[in-house]
Structures are given as C-alpha cells and as structure tokens.
Amino acid sequence: MINIRRAEHTDADYVFAAETAYIDCPWTLEQIRDEIARDNTVFLVAEEHGELIGYASCEIVVDCCDVNNIAVSEKYRRQGVASALLTEMESRAKRLGATESTLTVREDNTPAIKLYEATGYVTVHIRRGYYKGKNGMIMTKKF
Ligand SMILES: CC(C)(COP(=O)(O)OP(=O)(O)OC[C@H]1O[C@@H](n2cnc3c(N)ncnc32)[C@H](O)[C@@H]1OP(=O)(O)O)[C@@H](O)C(=O)NCCC(=O)NCCS
C-alpha cells in the first residue's frame, strides 16, 4: 500500500540520493532541506511499508504550480507511484490557489513525457538547448 505524505526534514537524504541518481541537474542537500521547509512549496514523498520510494515537489508562484521535480526509485516504477504523487501535489497546489501547472522536461525523457501527457499536460513551448544541447519542452496543465 503506497502512502503519500508531506516531506519532512529527515526525508532529505533519500531525496538527495534520488536526485543524484536520476535527475540532470540535482539539487544539493541544502537546497532540498530549504525547499522542504518553505511555506510556498508542496514537497511530497511516497512510501511503502515505511520505505521511501519517490518524491515530487512544486513551488506555488501566485496562481501557478511550478513543478520542480519528480522521481521514483527504479524498482517501483510503472506502478502508478508518480501519477499518485502528481495527483496529490496538484490537489494541494489547487488548495493553495494554483489554477494551472507548468514544468520543463528534456525532449528525450520519454517516461516523464508520457507520464505528463497521461495526466493531462500539453506541450506549449520548446526551449532550444535548455539541457546542455538537448531541447526542453515546456508543458502545462489547466486545473
Ligand atoms: C518519470 C517517472 C517519475 C515515472 O514514474 P512512475 O512511477 O514509473 O510512473 P507511473 O507508474 O505513475 O506511470 C504513469 C504513466 O506514465 C507513462 N509512463 C511512465 N513511465 C513510462 C515509460 N518508461 N515508458 C512509457 N510510458 C511511461 C505511462 O502512460 C504510465 O501509465 P501505465 O503504466 O498505465 O502505462 C520515473 O520514470 C522516474 O523517476 N524517472 C527518472 C526521473 C525523471 O526523469 N523525472 C522527471 C524529470 S522532468
């Protein structure tokens, strides 16, 4: 049974390890701790039987939910964990006043693009060379 909850200070080490393993420009441990503590962010973790298996975070900027990152530990992928994290994050973002969500994803990150498309995001702009020569796709979703 997967449980989604707000990230706590003590979850930062897991998030940092996952960022370092799976994300292009990983945040530092300090940045992660700051983000978890801030009021205008929604920072969630997924856990199963007490083991952390994924996380997602966004920042609320006025009426927009800016998705920072989302990742799921490899052995738990394709089980709906990221979808559950996104759904809960969007629901909390809405309660904080967001009316839309936006994110940037590398053009060759097929799993992430498919995830976002499956949850209602559409590509609205291409940022040429945003990821060290690879294009970034800006995707948005209206709530
Ligand atoms: C992208 C990522 C978060 C998806 O996590 P996940 O828990 O496996 O995603 P879900 O199980 O919720 O998948 C939901 C849907 O997304 C799509 N999807 C997810 N992974 C996919 C893949 N590898 N290939 C094709 N479609 C995929 C499918 O439509 C899937 O539904 P389905 O399994 O019923 O077909 C995960 O692959 C990951 O951590 N990647 C590394 C970090 C990363 O790239 N983060 C995004 C940065 S922008």
Task: Tell me the layout of helices and strands.
Layout: E1 2-6, H1 12-22, H2 29-37, E2 41-48, E3 51-61, E4 64-72, H3 81-95, E5 100-106, H4 110-118, E6 122-131, E7 134-142
Helix pairs in contact: 1-2
Residues 22-23, 69-72, 77-83, 105, 109-112, 114-115, 118 line the site of coenzyme A.
Task: Describe the protein in words.
By secondary structure, the protein is α+β, with helices and mostly antiparallel strands. The chain has a single domain (2-142), classed as Aminopeptidase (3-Layer(aba) Sandwich). It has four helices and seven strands, in the order βααβββαβαββ. The protein has helices at residues 12-22, 29-37, 81-95, 110-118, and strands at 2-6, 41-48, 51-61, 64-72, 100-106, 122-131, 134-142. Strands 1-2-3-4-5-7-6 form a seven-stranded mixed β-sheet, with helices on both faces. Strand 3 and strand 4 form a beta hairpin. Helix 1 (12-22) packs across helix 2 (29-37). The longest helix is centred in the middle third of the chain and has 15 residues, at 81-95. The chain is globular, with a radius of gyration of 14 Å. The two termini are 27 Å apart. The model has no long low-confidence stretch (mean pLDDT 97). It binds coenzyme A. Coenzyme A (COA) binds next to strand 4, helix 3 and helix 4.
Gross CATH architecture: 3-Layer(aba) Sandwich
Question: Which small-molecule ligands are present, each listed once?
Answer: coenzyme A
CATH topology: Aminopeptidase
Tally of alpha and pi helices: 4
- Report the radius of gyration as a whole number of Å: 14 Å
What's the CATH first level? Alpha Beta
Order of helices and strands: EHHEEEHEHEE
Ends distance: 27 Å
Counting helices, strands and paired strands, the structural category is alpha+beta
The CATH homologous superfamily is called Gcn5-related N-acetyltransferase (GNAT)
**Helix-residue proportion:** 25-40%
Oligomer: single chain
As a percent range, the share of strand residues is 35-45%
Shape: globular
Total strands: 7
Arithmetic mean of pLDDT? 97
Largest sheet: 7 strands, mixed
Poorly predicted ranges = none
